[in-house]
Amino acid sequence: MPRYLSLHTLACLTRQGAEQLITRLAAADGVTMQRAQINMIEGKMLLEFDSPDRDTLEKWFRDEGFHYDWVFRVEFEARGSKLEPV
Amino acid sequence: MTDYAHPEVLVTTDWVAGHLNDPNLRLIEVDVDTSAYDQGHVPGAVGWNWQTQLQDTVRRDLADQRSFGQLAGSAGLTPDTTVILYGDNNNWFAAWGFWQLKYYGHKDVRLMNGGRKKWLEEKRPLSTDAPKVQPTSYTVKSPDTSIRAKRDDIFAVLEKHSPAQLVDVRSADEFSGKVIAPPGMNETAQRGGHIPGAASIPWAQAVAEDGTFKPADALRQLYGGKGVTGEQEVIAYCRIGERSSHTWFVLKYLLGYKNVRNYDGSWTEWGNLVGAPIEKEIAAAAR
Q1: Fewer CB within 10 Å of terminal CB in chain B, N or C?
Q2: What is the CATH superfamily name and number for domain B7-142?
């Protein structure tokens, strides 16, 4: 299934709020949250999703009230020195 | 400590570690909820819950004098106690606790630089034991209203009855109105943007990556560069008043600005006020 990264502005999301958010993300229907990475000082959260397509993911964000800075589909990735299609 | 105006109010984790058994000292961890405290806290620390103990739980306001006095008494405070505050979430709520203790007149209040995160990163000891506390009868002084701004104070600035400068400590996206609340949260304000004339100086620009405060020179450049020099009164605000209490601490105690107030109503009040003016474009500096 296609993989997407999304970046979100946290406003004043607390650690406790992030824990609740992760629980919601983990229970998402139609999209699968694979990973979340957060920096409270930068005020940003990076999410990694599996989603059938961009429209499905963006619709889920809209329905859940998750504003986002950007979404992009991961086409290639490298772990180590070899670049491979995702 | 790097030329701060009031270095005595900021203590290091090292200092705290060396003073854990001081008889007249009380450590207080302030969190949004105390689950982290319950899992392990600085030995001897009392845990305060920002949501249920440092606010009025019926109407939107600070804990009233009576409730605050009871809370302070239950932590064993006397007027002479040295209170050291720390917490998670980059000491936001510890700074709020600091501000509230000062609001109610407690003399000696300090913040542990870097907060809970730094204590944990340095692998310092934690305890799950309830601290030994001898409850006291703590008499709260009349509130120091000179450090708290209400919405009428903001209107006074906008109507030019007050020369105070406004500092918006939220992120750039909140300042411009692109974002009003954390992701997935109900917006909590009807409108986005900022109070007209406010300088955008996000709270995070005052700290290093480990959450400790930047040196005094860097802080002077940060705020001075945006025209916030302390010559006039400064009023800081954010969304709910906790990030702005962090900035209030920086301006008042680290830079020594004489007149600094925290507008704790912040954007969740202003962004819901019928008829309150709102701006979305960004000015270069505070007006």
Answers
A1: C
A2: Rhodanese-like domain (3.40.250.10)
